[in-house]
Amino acid sequence: MARPVVRIQVPSGGRVADFAFVAALALAATGCGPMMIEREGHRVFNPNYARFLEMEARDAWQLPEQVVEALALPQDAVVADIGAGGGYFTERFARRLLAGRVYATDAQAEMIERLDERVRERALDNVTVVHGGFDDPRLPEACCDLVFLSSVYKEIDARVAYMRKVRRLLRPGGRVAILEFRPGARGFGPPKQERMAAEQIGAELAEAGFVLVESHDFLPREWFLVFAPAEAF
Question: pLDDT tens digits for 149-164?
Answer without folding.
Answer: 999 999 898 999 999 9
